[in-house]
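## retry 2 of 3
previous attempt timed out at serialization; input unchanged, resubmitting
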Amino acid sequence: MNKCPSVYLDACCFCRLLDDPSQYRVRLETEAVVTILECCDRGEMSLISSDALEFELQRIPNVEGEGREQIFAFLGAAKIFVETTDSIEDRAESFCKLGFTLYDALHLAFAEASDATVFLTTDDRLLKKAISYADNIKVRIFNPVTWLMENQE
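## retry succeeded, writing output
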């Protein structure tokens, strides 16, 4: 039996839940994120949260009165929570030196520290940069649609 995958969704994935679904890509990514969160809720996957993720998501505007609360309700289902450590900060700093933004670097460092099966993002810029530095990153990185399609049973 395969081990239950552990997934680290970056803030872009959670914010996708609040985006206008009129664009086909947004709708697909939203459905993929919801499917992954539902799998986590059923215990088929383990959702990972972190200090950095909670902090970044606190900064999003409270869309339509309940947007942020809905995101935190999903995030509350996380089975794994990773707190900041010196080694995570050092690792994030090394990602920043490669050109990653601070939050992207932190999320990557937290995902690595948690031994995540996969790091998911809807951010094309982050995904492209991460792929170009794949040898330097100890976690697999995918768009949620692509990962879900490749990992459906």
